[in-house]
Write a structure and sequence with these properties.
CATH class: Mainly Beta
Distance between the termini: 20 Å
Radius of gyration: 13 Å
Strand order of the largest sheet: 3-10-5-8
CATH topology: Jelly Rolls
Strand content: 35-45%
Number of helices: 1
Shape: globular
Amino acid sequence: MENTGRLVRTPDIEDLVKGWTIPACAAVTVDTSQVLLATGEVTMANRRMLIVFNNSSSVIYVGPTGVTTSSGIPVLPNDYWPWPSSADLYAIAAGAGNDVRVMEAT
């Protein structure tokens, strides 16, 4: 990421996954209970990157298991958050029915 002083510019998705295989994308509904952000029931084996796009009109919060709206990292509406890790990532929101899109890359 490019440091522009106090703000950090999020890299373009194309730059993040250049040369990687994008085997799966999915829609996930984020409610008031934590949900695993993955394209299936479990995190994809050998995943190198998870990209989370908040397709809802509400803020969602991401973090490790046990994430809350107080402890999670906020992802604003119509914004995305890259997770360059194979570790599980969870999301939660203050309200129900939030549409979130996820893409896993290997």
